[in-house]
Amino acid sequence: MLNILILNLSVFMLATAPVIVKFSSLAPISILFFRLLLVSILLLPFAVRSGIRIDKDDLIKVALASCFLFFHFLSWFSGIQKIPVGLTVIIYATNPIFTALIGHLVIREYFNKRFLFSLVFSFVGVVIASLSKANGEVDFVGVFQILLAALFYSSYMVYSKRNRATVKNSTYNFYLNFFTCILGGGALLVLGLSSSGVELLSLPSLYDWQVLLALAILPSILGHTLMVYSVSHYNLNMISSLKLFSPLISSYMAYVFFGERFNENLLLGFSFVAIGVIFALPWKRRNI
Questions:
Q1: Using an 8 Å Cβ cutoff, are 226 and 12 in contact?
Q2: 174: number of CA atoms within 13 Å, CB side?
């Protein structure tokens, strides 16, 4: 009973991310850097307890994985500021399809014919949802950026599966977030020193620090950490299916906080994406 409550809590916490981001007035690169800085600080005690030492080969693997994660976060934070929450989470729900496709192309994982059906179905859903005008005109640059975010996250997952570091999860997560934070800090410094981006070098306001702390604790620490815990107790396909409730949770919170409407096009688009993802899952009775 406790484990199923933990799993549901993790899904709920992950669903808060796109809503919390909307409260921030910071630039995407600033959100990326300061959020991951806080996450790294929060994870440091756990990494020290597990063993902070890491060898050169693992260090390189984590550093390369952080590059994919950096572009994922940058695309996601940029896109979420341009389009409604409901549309964001529907588009991002396609990432299991990208993972299956990239896994086949890069590490030659088995690619079932049903994946093609899933791919077509999901992208039809994205197109339908993108044409929704429930919350004003849709910025297709934002749509493309969220698709990029899903693509980069899937690339990160495939790379990590092929080149998984041998360190413990707590140590791995610390270095992953820390290296991604360093990349974000470098990008922030370069942009901040340019003539048009000096304001990027200023520290966040107290209000924005509160938003960043909420991002670090709720979706990052509680959401991702509890999800990793749940993977060892439940079938991965069940977890992937349960995560399809995230768009509905996020959309409801966006309606409560921002008055964003979830109309027929968004609902139809979500249905297409959900069916596509479910068809892509390898339904076998095994725990991971």
A1: no
A2: 19
